[in-house]
UniProtKB/TrEMBL annotation:
Belongs to the short-chain dehydrogenases/reductases (SDR) family. Keywords: Oxidoreductase. The keyword Magnesium does not apply. It comes from the Bacteria. This is SDR family oxidoreductase. CDD domains: SDR_c. NCBIfam families: PRK06171.1 (NF004817), PRK07231.1 (NF005559). InterPro entries: NAD(P)-bd_dom_sf, Sc_DH/Rdtase_CS, SDR_fam. Coiled coil: none annotated.
Length: 262
């Protein structure tokens, strides 16, 4: 149904979590996938994917990844800007006891570089390839936090909001070249990658619950009563990447089990 046969996709941050699943779903639907991630060794895999070691914050690294994709597979038809980092911290440390709850300047710059500059660099390099064939799709992985704002995650929320603004602007710039640009805003998804002890501790603190109580707190806030499955994001991205979504551009699809409308 979602025929991606012959299409070439780049998935940033595709070595784990949501990105890994997006890569698998795209491959299942017939696409060839270049996984661009910091945490992989270069090389072809048997499942239709090729790994490129890439740092999305470096223009040189991004340009090399796009060039390598064209060299190996001949084009870039689909870009999924998925690599992201989230270091939940407060605007001000309101207790004063644990200064680590306040976001440092270094962490602010880090989040902006990965979540905001990275997608820009990748869209810029990929769109140049898409322009040559007058066709393409750019899918930006935002977050419910980027639509609603999330306590303790104001910098992360802002970077994810920026992705939504990029999506609207690029869709207007690139529509005349038959290039669609969409964003996906997941709610709480069953990943472990971002959930370090420090992440959980900071989130529990901002939500006024214990770390052990976080899962219950999440579920209570979701009308469907559970976290989202990785495959549910992969399915939506595959649909958006396919010609079935040929009139969908410039918009952000919220996928949060009803937690927010977006
Ligand atoms: P994850 O940590 O499991 O995966 C992120 C991947 O990005 C990792 O493989 C990591 O190596 C890679 N990465 C990080 N920095 C990079 C860089 N500079 N260059 C290249 N690769 C880099 O995270 P996830 O939970 O799968 O999140 C994926 C995306 O989904 C992120 O953009 C995140 O903000 C978004 N998101 C996640 C959730 C959730 O609940 N997990 C909710 C909403 C949005």
């Amino acid at each position: 149904w979602l025929d991606l046969e012959g299409k070439v996709a780049i998935v940033t941050g595709g070595a784990s979590g949501i990105g890994l699943n997006i890569s698998k779903e795209l491959i299942k639907n017939g696409a060839k996938v270049v996984v661009a991630d910091l945490n992989v060794e270069e090389g072809k895999q048997s499942d239709g994917s090729y790994f490129v070691k890439c740092n999305v914050t470096s223009k040189e690294s991004v340009d090399q990844t796009v060039a390598k994709t064209v060299e190996i597979f001949g084009s870039v038809d689909i870009l999924v800007n998925n690599a992201g980092v989230n270091l939940p911290r407060l605007l001000v440390d309101d207790k004063g006891e644990k200064p680590e709850y306040e976001l440092s300047e270094k962490d602010f710059d880090f989040m902006v570089a990965v979540n905001q500059k990275g997608p820009y660099l990748f869209a810029q390099a990929s769109a140049k390839e898409m322009l040559k064939q007058n066709k393409g799709v750019i899918i930006n992985i935002s977050s419910e936090a980027g639509q609603e704002g999330s306590a303790g995650q104001s910098c992360y929320s802002a970077t994810k909001g920026a992705i939504i603004a990029f999506t609207r602007a690029w869709a207007k710039e690139l529509g005349k070249h038959n290039i669609r640009v969409v964003a996906v805003a997941p709610g709480i998804i069953e990943t472990t990658g971002l959930r370090t002890d420090a992440y959980n501790e900071a989130l529990a603190y901002t939500r006024g619950v214990t770390v052990d109580g976080l899962a219950t707190d999440y579920s209570k806030s979701i009308p469907l009563g559970r976290e989202g499955k990785l495959t549910e994001i992969g399915d939506l991205v595959s649909y958006l990447a396919s010609d079935r979504a040929s009139y969908v551009t410039g918009t952000t699809l919220n996928i949060s089990g009803g937690k927010s409308r977006g």
